[in-house]
Each structure stands twice: as structure tokens, then as C-alpha cells.
Amino acid sequence: MTSLGTPPLAVAEENIPNARARRRGARTIRIRGRRPGIWTYIALGVVLIASVFPFYWSFLIGSGDATTIRDPAMSWIPGGNFFDNAAQVVNDPAVNFWKALWNSIYSSALIAASVVTFSTIAGWAFAKLRFRGSRPLLIFVIATMAVPMQLGVVPLYILFSDLGWTGTIGAIIVPSLTTAFGVFWMTQYLTQSVPDELIEAARVDGASMFRTFLTVGLVAARPAAAMLGLFTFVTAWNNFFWPFIVLDRQDPTLPVALSLLQSNYFVDYSIVLAGVLLSTVPLLILFVFAGKQLVSGIMQGAVKG
What we know:
By secondary structure, the protein is an all-alpha fold. Helix content is 72%, strand content 0%.
């Protein structure tokens, strides 16, 4: 019922926000009420065990000696030789561990920063700028993802050999300054996360397209850029094929240096796996410090979307 002095239209307008709030609250209750069942926890437990087991197996072998992996009665309790094996890896003059570690950190960080920068700029152009040939050009960029890297190794090596870059760390950085996947990733994200009306409002206020990109595009792209940067860093860190071909053994990255541990007639897998675990420590540290910010950025972007 309404009072005599209140028009029915005004009452209806007052009830619209209340109705929206009730629907939003009901939707939130339904979403939060869907608690995972026992099978969800079982599946997550299986995935967790499958993910952790390779690390435990590496630590189990890396904490033993040369006979551990060949022992049929091998104990599942780690031994006490891990630090001795790790010290042998670090002090091996053929491995040059510290120089290889610096090369991996330096090249992976530079590649990740470059891929995020160029992919964000290209993704903004493909997503929000209208220019002739944008769609065919984007299709061409995506199509390059289907070309195997092995097809370009020979001409790429000839090019860097003519430039005199073989054996230098720049030979693995320059070809990876941007990626087709990064451009596609940022294009898809910016297309969905930035409304065209927001760009039009910024242009009406007098902002140039570059300033609109800095104030609107970069802010919206932070969650996707964080994901892309992390995945690119891990990919560059684990890259073995191209650095093994183009780098000298005196100036390698960490995966190439660790491969020298098994270049003898007899391979001591306790030493090899101890080195493998040492190479994963920087990645674990990166995930520990960046994981919380990464997840919060993803959730913030999802809530804003």
C-alpha cells in the first residue's frame, strides 16, 4: 500500500534498488552455498600428490649416493647427503654454477619484462584501436604459434653467427623479446575487461590515446600482465633447446650447465637431481613472494569484470 501523497511511480522507483539488492544477495547466497563435496577434495588431493611427488623423488635420490637409484631395496626416507651433493654441484668447475645462475636470472627477467611490455602495447592496439588490416594481422600473429621452433633454428643460428652473437647471452634474449601467445593473451583480456565507453569518456575529457592507454589500459591489464610475466619467466628459465645450441659451455644458462653433470660415461644421478633441485629454488621463491599478489590481482580483475 502507498500513502495518498506518494505517486505510484515514485514508489516503484524506490523499490528498484531494493529489488536489485535482494537479487544480488540471493545470487551471492546461492554461489557461497555451493560448498565442494568430498569428491572435490579427493580430486584436489590427487592433483596435489601428483604435483609434489616429482620434487620428493628428486630430493630422495639427491639426498643419497650413486647407488641409491639402482638399489632395489631403496628406502623412501631421504638420506643425509643432499648438502654434500649440492656443494659438489656448486663447486664443480665444469658447471660454473654461479655464472649460469646469474645468466638465467638476468635473461629470464629481461625476457619476461620485454614480453609483458610489447604484448600489452600490441594487445591494446588490436583490442581497442581500429585500423585497416587489424584482423588479418592478428590472425597472422596467432598462426605463427603453429610453427614449431625447430623449423627456425637453422636460419636463426646463421643470422646470429653472421652478427657475431653466437656464444653471448643476447642470442637467447633477442629472439624472445615478444611472443605471439603474449599478444593473443593480452588482446583477449583487454577486449573483455575494458569497455569502449570508458575509452570514449577519456577521449572526451581530452586524453590522448597514449594517455588513455597509460591511465586505463595499464590499470586494467595488471592481472593478465602478472600472469603473463610469471609464465614467461618460468618458460625462459626452463628453456634448454636454443641456449644449448647457441651458447658456449663457458657462459651457459642453468639448464645447459646442469646438462654437463651427465656428460660423462658414468652418470651420478644423486648429483644430477641435487642440481635440478637447486635450479628450482629460485622459481619456488618467486612463487612464494609473487603468488599472493598474483592471486589477488586475478581476483580483483574478476570482481571488476
